[in-house]
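Researcher: I need the complex structure. Ligand is 2-acetamido-2-deoxy-beta-D-glucopyranose. Inputs:
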Amino acid sequence: MKVFGRNLELDHERAMISWSPFLIALLLLMSIPVVFVLAPRILPPKTMPSIPDLDEVDDLALFRRATLASAGGEGGRGGAGIRRRPASAPKIAFLFLTNSDLVFAPLWERFFHGHERLFNVYVHADPAAELLLPPTPSFRGRFIPAKATQRSSPTLISAARRLLAAALIDDPANAFFALLSQSCVPLHSFRFAYHALLADTGTPSNLPDGRRRRRSYIEISSTDPWMWNRYVARGDSVMLPEVPFERFRAGSQFFVLARRHAVMVVRDRRFWKKFKIPCLKSRVDSCYPEEHYFPTLLDMQDPAGCSRYTLTRVNWTDSVGGHPHMYQPPEISANLIKELRKSNSTYSHLFARKFSAECLDPLLKLADRLASNVPSLGFGFLDEDLVPGLDESNWLKLIHHSLFISEHHQATCFFKAKNKRLSSEIG
Ligand SMILES: *[C@@H]1O[C@H](CO)[C@@H](O)[C@H](O)[C@H]1NC(C)=O
Ligand SMILES: *[C@@H]1O[C@H](CO)[C@@H](O)[C@H](O)[C@H]1NC(C)=O
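Model: Output:
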């Protein structure tokens, strides 16, 4: 028995010896998933959050619909298919990208008033934003399905693309797409802005009918001093081969795109694949994907179709933490508006940012100033120096430089301007 017992012990020992490496291996194997599950929680991630897969799937479906809806339109690949003729006059789509209340809505209402047939409004509001102000008429029912947005992340590109897609699908008459934020304000009347965009002679095209094509107004720069840092914000060579450094561009986030470029942007997958890569946390200071995606894409795909300057004025003097100067009420004056309109290009700026919410009242007062002088005009002028005399020779200037003047008021102006030649020039 004793011998038997000893043998048993020996067997047991032998078993221990032969089993233990297997056990260790097994334990190691089992620990791999644990490491995968726990490591990201213990070690801080090296990159900023990426775009959730579900959001990507939703977006892809939306962008496909927008591309299909636009096939054969101005943005279509000429020739093939039936060209869908929009039933109405060309419209401007105003795309508001916001993460707070649209505090300047009352100002925009005055800008829009009387031009309902010539524009559409679309709003992408971050779902986390607590909107306290009830939407004013032009904004009511104009909110598109939105997803979370944050700085230093490609979510701002996605949001802009959603707005473009929604506007492309919604109305084939949308010819220009102006991206704006809640802190943007108009610098001219609707009529002025509409004519500036629609009357542009555009760029020559190789279309069979020799039609000229509308231009997009987007800043495209290759001389930003921080370009290299911005290029490698996602990692040293992750942008290759699609985007070599020499082709990487910078520009203002806010633009006015012609329809064919809006289609180009929602159809894109090649550049998005790169620009959606989250930035490295260590390089987050150089992470501004939305200031690079659109200019790079358009400069690579249709450089001749873009103005290379923006129509939205911004003041970068003494900027702090990547934020431009935020105008405060004491700064609001007719002279400021005039100053902001000035541009180095042939075009006056049409919009400006950023204005603090408190600027609403002074801006409205500025727009209302004439109302008390000439009640028949209701509201609408910023060029106060033109107002006092109101002599006929000033009407033309007044009309062209007035802010928020509606068609009704325009008619009043025509009526008042007895000088027929003047009227015909305006018409
Ligand atoms: C731009 O902002 C600076 C302050 O940062 C201000 O002094 C200057 O007047 C502003 N320029 C214009 C044209 O508003
Ligand atoms: C015009 O260009 C000059 C020189 O490049 C620059 O300093 C100035 O700020 C520009 N003005 C506007 C209104 O963009």
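Model: Summary of the prediction. Residues 151 and 288 are 8 Å apart (CA to CA).
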